[in-house]
Automatic annotation (TrEMBL), chains A, B, C, D, E, F:
Record-level GO BP terms: cysteine biosynthetic process from serine
Protein's name in the database: Serine acetyltransferase
SUPFAM superfamilies registered for this protein in UniProt: Trimeric LpxA-like enzymes
Keyword Cell division among UniProt keywords: no
Pfam families: SATase_N (PF06426)
Annotated InterPro entries: LbH_SAT, Ser_AcTrfase_N, Ser_AcTrfase_N_sf, Serine_acetyltransferase, Trimer_LpxA-like_sf
Superkingdom of origin: Bacteria
Single GO term (MF): serine O-acetyltransferase activity
Domain (Serine acetyltransferase N-terminal) ranges: 85-146
UniProt pathway annotation: Amino-acid biosynthesis; L-cysteine biosynthesis; L-cysteine from L-serine: step 1/2
Cross-referenced CDD domains: LbH_SAT
Gene Ontology CC terms: cytoplasm
Species for this entry: Ureibacillus xyleni
Amino acid sequence: MKLNEWLNNEIPNIAKTLVDVHKDYFSIEKSIGFEGQETIYKILQNFRSALFPCLCDKYSSDNTRINVSIGNNLRKSALDLSELIGKVLVNENALNETDAKRKAEEIVMNLINKFPEIRKTLQTDIQAAYDGDPATTSTEEILFSYPSIQAISIHRIAHELYKLNVPIIPRIMSEYAHGLTGIDIHPGASIGEYFFIDHGTGVVIGETCTIGKNVKIYQGVTLGAKSFPLDENGNPIKGIKRHPNIEDNVVIYAGATILGGDTTIGQNSVIGGNIWLTQSVPENSKVYNSQPLPNIK
Amino acid sequence: MKLNEWLNNEIPNIAKTLVDVHKDYFSIEKSIGFEGQETIYKILQNFRSALFPCLCDKYSSDNTRINVSIGNNLRKSALDLSELIGKVLVNENALNETDAKRKAEEIVMNLINKFPEIRKTLQTDIQAAYDGDPATTSTEEILFSYPSIQAISIHRIAHELYKLNVPIIPRIMSEYAHGLTGIDIHPGASIGEYFFIDHGTGVVIGETCTIGKNVKIYQGVTLGAKSFPLDENGNPIKGIKRHPNIEDNVVIYAGATILGGDTTIGQNSVIGGNIWLTQSVPENSKVYNSQPLPNIK
Amino acid sequence: MKLNEWLNNEIPNIAKTLVDVHKDYFSIEKSIGFEGQETIYKILQNFRSALFPCLCDKYSSDNTRINVSIGNNLRKSALDLSELIGKVLVNENALNETDAKRKAEEIVMNLINKFPEIRKTLQTDIQAAYDGDPATTSTEEILFSYPSIQAISIHRIAHELYKLNVPIIPRIMSEYAHGLTGIDIHPGASIGEYFFIDHGTGVVIGETCTIGKNVKIYQGVTLGAKSFPLDENGNPIKGIKRHPNIEDNVVIYAGATILGGDTTIGQNSVIGGNIWLTQSVPENSKVYNSQPLPNIK
Amino acid sequence: MKLNEWLNNEIPNIAKTLVDVHKDYFSIEKSIGFEGQETIYKILQNFRSALFPCLCDKYSSDNTRINVSIGNNLRKSALDLSELIGKVLVNENALNETDAKRKAEEIVMNLINKFPEIRKTLQTDIQAAYDGDPATTSTEEILFSYPSIQAISIHRIAHELYKLNVPIIPRIMSEYAHGLTGIDIHPGASIGEYFFIDHGTGVVIGETCTIGKNVKIYQGVTLGAKSFPLDENGNPIKGIKRHPNIEDNVVIYAGATILGGDTTIGQNSVIGGNIWLTQSVPENSKVYNSQPLPNIK
Amino acid sequence: MKLNEWLNNEIPNIAKTLVDVHKDYFSIEKSIGFEGQETIYKILQNFRSALFPCLCDKYSSDNTRINVSIGNNLRKSALDLSELIGKVLVNENALNETDAKRKAEEIVMNLINKFPEIRKTLQTDIQAAYDGDPATTSTEEILFSYPSIQAISIHRIAHELYKLNVPIIPRIMSEYAHGLTGIDIHPGASIGEYFFIDHGTGVVIGETCTIGKNVKIYQGVTLGAKSFPLDENGNPIKGIKRHPNIEDNVVIYAGATILGGDTTIGQNSVIGGNIWLTQSVPENSKVYNSQPLPNIK
Amino acid sequence: MKLNEWLNNEIPNIAKTLVDVHKDYFSIEKSIGFEGQETIYKILQNFRSALFPCLCDKYSSDNTRINVSIGNNLRKSALDLSELIGKVLVNENALNETDAKRKAEEIVMNLINKFPEIRKTLQTDIQAAYDGDPATTSTEEILFSYPSIQAISIHRIAHELYKLNVPIIPRIMSEYAHGLTGIDIHPGASIGEYFFIDHGTGVVIGETCTIGKNVKIYQGVTLGAKSFPLDENGNPIKGIKRHPNIEDNVVIYAGATILGGDTTIGQNSVIGGNIWLTQSVPENSKVYNSQPLPNIK
C-alpha cells in the first residue's frame, strides 16, 4: 500500500484497535493520566523549593518575596495534590466524590503541616552527608549535587502520603526520584534521621523495611525480599513484612544484599561490600566476605 | 588577554578549530543531529501514548477525540520517523534517496501495523509485573510507576526496527530508555511475552540474547558477552552470537551475571543473586552461591 | 480546619517557618540557586554542541553558520560561567568581588582555550568505544547513543575546573552527568585518553583516582575509598589520597570493586567481574574470582 | 499596614470580593473562559494554514507531509471548535447537552466542508488586492503582508458560523482579526468575492451590511448604523437592518462614512474620501465633497 | 569583505558603537528594560483575571481554587509592580532606595485596595456596552470581544497609578492597551462610569480630558489639544490643561474631533460624525455638519 | 454523516483539495512560509535591541555582557536574514543560488554597517517626540511607550532593504509595524530626521512619499495616491511617483489627507485637521478648513 493511502485508511483502524484494547484493561476516564503524572512531578518541584527556599525558581534575597513565593507555591500545590488524591480515592478506594474530596483535603493539610518537621529531619540528612563524605566541602554543595538529598526529600514526602493510605501517588513520586537518581526507595519504607546514601545508583529499599537513625548506605545496596509466599491462586500475598530491619548507626557498603522480613542488622554493625545476607546479625557486628582472595595470575 | 578581546578575537578561532576537527571525523551534513535525536524522543512519547491512550498529552473520555488524537500522533510520527530512517539509510547503507525513501516508508508502515500485536504483548508484561510484585496494588500503578514497562515498551518498538535493519535509530531509542530507567536492553535482544524486570537499575541485556516467555529479572542483572574474538586487525568481530539464551519461566535474582553466546539457562530455572555464570544450566536448575557464609565478627 | 481557611491562615506561617529554618543553615543571598543550577546545565549543553558541532540545536551544513552558532554559544556560556564562578569564589573562597571577577574570567578563558585539546582527547574516547564494543556499527552511533561519551565529555570539562580550584560547580556538572547516565565520576579523578565505559550504570570513580590510557570499564565498577581516617573531632579528614590508580591498558569487568588510595592496578591487567580488590596487583595480572562454581541443583 | 501583613491578610479578602462580584453578574462555570478564547485563536491559525498551506507551522515540499499536516490540524480544530460550540449552545441557547453536541458537530462539518469554496473566494480577494494596489509586486507579498487578506479570511469563516446561528464565537473571531489588523468586520456582514481593503486601519463594517462583488474600500471607512430605535424600555431593538448595501464594483475612498439600513450605493459608484453619506445613490454615481477648497494662507 | 570575516571582525565594532551611542543618551542600569516592560504586560494580564475571574489562565468552578488562583496572582503581581515602581521612583523622582521602596509598597496597596471599587465601575461600563450596541447579545460576549472593555479596564488601573504620581509605568500600560485595541487613552484622563467606546480604532483621549458619566464615543474620535504654548526655550510647557471636558450623557459619533482645554461639551449633547469642534457647546446641543450635501454625479 | 466517519473519510479529501488549489496559485517550495515570516519578526526584535541596548531580552549593566549579547544577536540575525533574502532573490528575481547568496550577504552587510548611522537618526526622532509632546516627561518614556518610535525604527531598517531592491521582506517588516502600532508606512517612503507621529493609529504613508526633516504628523493622516493610471490591460501601472512630497518643518494635524505624486507641501507649512488636499501649497502655508461652523442646535 502507498504511504499516503495507508495514513488515511489504515491509521484510523489501528488507532481504534489500540483504544479498544486499552479499554479492555484500563479505564480512560478514571486514570490520572499523563497530565496527572506531570502534575505530580511539578508538585514535587514546588515542595522541594518550599523545603529549600534557595531552590526557588526565581528567588531574591527579599524576605517578603521569598515568603510570598513559597506560600503561593504551597497553596497551588495543595490544591493540585488534593484534586489528584480525591481522584484516586474515588477510583481505587471507591469513595464517593464528597467523601473523597473531604478526605483528600485532610490528607493534604496533614502533609503540609508536617513540612517544618520534615525539613528539620532533612537537615540531619544533609549533616550526615557532610559528615560521611570526605569529598564534600560544604552543605551548599550537598544541596546542589547529592542525589541522596533529592531521593530522601522526595521519600519523606511520599512516605507521609503512604502512611495516610493514598494509593498510587506515593509510588509515582518514588519512581520519579528513582528515575532522577537511580535510588529506588519504596514509599512504605520507614527511615530514621541522619540518613545518607553515597553515590546511590542501584540502591533498592523495599516497602516494609525499617531503617534506624544515622544509617549510611553505599551504591548498589539492596534491602529486599526473599522469595515471597503465594496464595492458593498462585498470586503473591500482599501486605506482609518482607524486608529487613536496619538498626541505628549501621553502615552498609556497596553492592551488599540484605534480604528478608525477619532479618535484622543490629545497631552499630558494619556490612561489607558485596555481602549477601539473609539472616540477622547482632549489634556491633562486622560482616565481611570470607571468600578467598581473588585469583591473581 | 582581557576577556573582552578574547571573546572577540579568540572565540572565532576556537570555534573554527572545533568545527574543523569535527569534520575530520564526522559529516555534519549527514548526521541526524540534535534535532533528529530530539525527534526520536518525541516519536517515542507519541508511540507510548498510542499504545496506552490514558497517557495522551491531553485526553478526554470522549471516544472520537481519543481516536483522533492517537491517529494524528501516529500520522505525524510515521512521517517524522520515515524521514529519519530515509536519512540514515542513505548515510549508513548508501542507498540512493528514492530507494531509501521507499524503503523507509515500508519500514514505518510495517512497524505501526504491528502496534496492535505489540500492545497485546505489553499487556502480558503488565500482567507479569502485577503477578510478580507483592508491593503493587493495581495495573494502573504499574503503568504509571514501573520502569520495567517503560523500558520494555520502548524495546519492543526498537526491536522491530532492528529486525528491519534500521541503523542507529533503534540504539538511540534503547539508550533513551536506559537514561530514563537505568535498564539497558540492546534492541537486538529477542524477548518473549510476560517479561518483568523489578527495580531494574543496572540491568544489561546484550544484543544477541534470546529470552523466553515469563522470565523475571531483578536489578543489576547482566546478560552479557564473554571476551570477544578480534579479527586480524585487532578489531572486535561484529555480528556473532555473544550473549546467553534464557528459556521460559526463568527467574534471575539481583546482581547475577550470565555471560556467553553458548550459555543457556534451561526453562523453569532460578538463578540466585550475585551469581556469576558462564556456562549453561539444565531445565529446573536452582543456582545459588556455594560461597561460605560471610564472616561475622 | 477548613481547607480554605487553612490556605489563607496557616500557609503563610508554614512558609515563614520553612524560610526561617533554611536561613539558620544556608545563606539565600549567596546561594547559586535553582537558576544557577539550571544555567550550569545549559552551559554544558552549549559546550557539548561546541565540542560536537553536529549536536547543535539548529545546525546547517553551511560553514559560516555553524561557526557563528558555536562562537555565539561559547561567548554566551563564557559569560554565564564566569558570572557563576565569580559568585562561588566570593562565597566559598571569600575573595572580594573584583578579585573574584578577574579570577573567574581567567578560569573561563583557560577552560575554553583547552577545548581543542579536550576535543582531540574525546575523539580517542570515541575510538576506544568503537574498538571496544562489537555491537556498534559507526562512530555516529557512539556519539548519539553511548552514555560513556556523554559522561566523559562532561568529566573532561569539570576536571579542568576542578584543577583550577573552582568550588561546587564541577560537582554540579558531574552530578548532572550522573543523573543522565548512571555514571558517577568525581571531577577530581584524572583520566587518560582512549577511555571507555560500557553500559555504565552504577560506575563510581572517586575523587583521587588516577586512570591511565586505554582503560576500559564495565557497568557497576567502583573505584572507591576504603574506610577513611577521622580527625580528632570525628570528622573525615578531607583532601587525602583515598582512591586507586589504574595504569594503562587495564580492563575492569562489570561489578568489580577496587578500593584504596594505595591500591594500584598494574598496566595491561584484567580485573574480572564482581572482583573485590583492596590491594595492588602487578602489571599484566589477570584477576578472577577463585570462588567455587555456583551450586547448581 | 505593612506590605507583608497586607499580602497575607487583605489579599484573600480582596480576592473573595472580586470573585463574589463577578458571580453576581457572570457564571464562571458556563463561561468559555480565557482558555476557550485562546483555543479560538489557535483554531483560526490552524484554519489559516489549511486555507494557505504555505503558512503551515512547519511545512515541507513533500506532498504527503503537507496533506497530513493539514488533515491533522483540521481534525484537531474540528473537535476543539465542536466542543466550544457545544458549550455556548448549552449556555446561550439553552439546548441540552446531547442536542448541543449533535448540533455543534453538524455545524463544524458544515463549516469545514465549505473550506474549498471559501478558499476559491479568497483567491479572488487576493487577485483583487493584486489588481487594486500598484505597490504590490506579487501575490506572495499579498499573502504575507496584507492585513486585508487576514481580515477577510477570518471573516469568511466567522460569517459561516454566524449564518449557522453560533453565539459569541464568531464575534470573538472577528475581534481577533480587528486586534491584528485594525479592520472591524462584524461576522454578520455579507461580502461578495473580489473584495479588497487597502491599508485598512479603522475600517468598520456593520452587522447587517451587504457588500457585492469587486468592492474596494480604503482605510477609515465606516459602513455603519444611523441612530437606532429603542424599545419601550429604552433598550436598542436588536436584529433589524441597520447598515448599508454596497453593490458590485463600488470603490469607497479613505475616511468615508456611509450610514443606515436603507442606504444603498448603486453599482459602479465611486465614493470620495471623507464623504458623509446617509442616503442612497444610484448606479454609476461619483460622490465627492462639494466643500470649498481649504483655506490656504 | 567576506561575510565570515565581517561577522568576526566588524560586528564587535558595530555592537560597541551602538552601545556607546545608547549610553550617551540613556542609562542602561536605570532603565526598566525589556524585562520590565514584559513584566508590566504580565501584571496587567493578572489584574485582568483578578477583575474578571472567568478570564483566569486555568480556572475551575471550584470556589477555593478560584480564590487561591486570584490571591496568588495578586500577591505575585503586587510584588513585581512594587519592585518596578520602586525602580522608577529612584530613577525619575530621585528618591533614595528606602523611601522609594516604602512609597512603592504604599502605592501598590493603595491600587489593589481599590480593585473592588474599580470592578464595580467596570460593571457599569459593561452595562453601557450592552445598552449601547444593538449588535450584542450578552454581557459574556462583551467581556470576550469588545475592545472597549479591555481598554477601559487597563485605563482605570493606569489612571490610579497616574494619580499616585507613578512615572512612566502608567504610560506603558496605556500604550499596551493602545497596541491591542487601537484606543489611545492617556492615563491622565478622568473618565466617569457607564463609559463605552464602540469599535474604537483611532480614538485618542488626551491627558487632561475629563469625561462625565454615561458617555458614548465611536471610532476615530479625538479629544485633543489645540496648539500648545511654548516656553522661552521653545519647548512645550508641560502640565497645563489642554484637553476638553465632556459632561454626562454625551454621545460623540465617529471621526469627530474636539480640541482644547477650555472646550466643554455640555451634558446630554450629541456631537455628529466628522465634526471639528474647538469651542464649547451648551447642554442638550446637537452638533451636525452644516456642510452642503456631497456632490453626486 | 457521523462526525467520526467524516473525520476519517472526508478530512483527507478536503485537505487534498485545499493543497491542490493552493498549488494552482502559489509555489509551496518557494514560499518563505510561516517560519520565514516569524523569523523576520524575530530579526526585527533583535535589531531593535541592538539599536536600543536597554531593550535587550536579558541585559545587565556589565559592559562586556551587553556587547556580547548584541554582537551575538547581530551575527545570528545577519545569517537568518541573509538566508531569507537569498531565498526571495532566487524566487522573485530569478537569480541563481550562488549569485543570490553572494548578493544577499552583501545586502545584509550593507544594512548592518548602516546601523550606527540609523541609530543616530533615531535619536533625532526621539528628540522630536520629546519636543513635540507636552505629555511626555522623559526620553525613557518615549522609548518604552511611543508607537512612533517603534514604527520609525522598523521603517528605517525596511527602507534600507527596499533601496537595496530586496523583494517582499521590507513589506513584511512594515506590515509587522503596522499591526503593532496602527501606523502603515510603506518601506519605499523616504523620511528625514527628527520625524514624529503622535498617537499614530490610522496613519498611512505611501510608497513614493518623500518627507523632509522635522516633520510632525498626527493620527489618521493619509499621504496617499490619487486614482492611478491603468495599462492597456486595465492593470495599475506600477513604479510611478504617486504620493506627495512633504518638505521640512511641516506639521500635519489629525485626519488630514494629502494625495498625489505632484502634490508638494512647502516647508514650514501647517496642515489643519481633516483637511483634504490634492494640490501643492507653497512654503509657510497654513491650511485650514473654510467650512462653516458646525450646526449647533
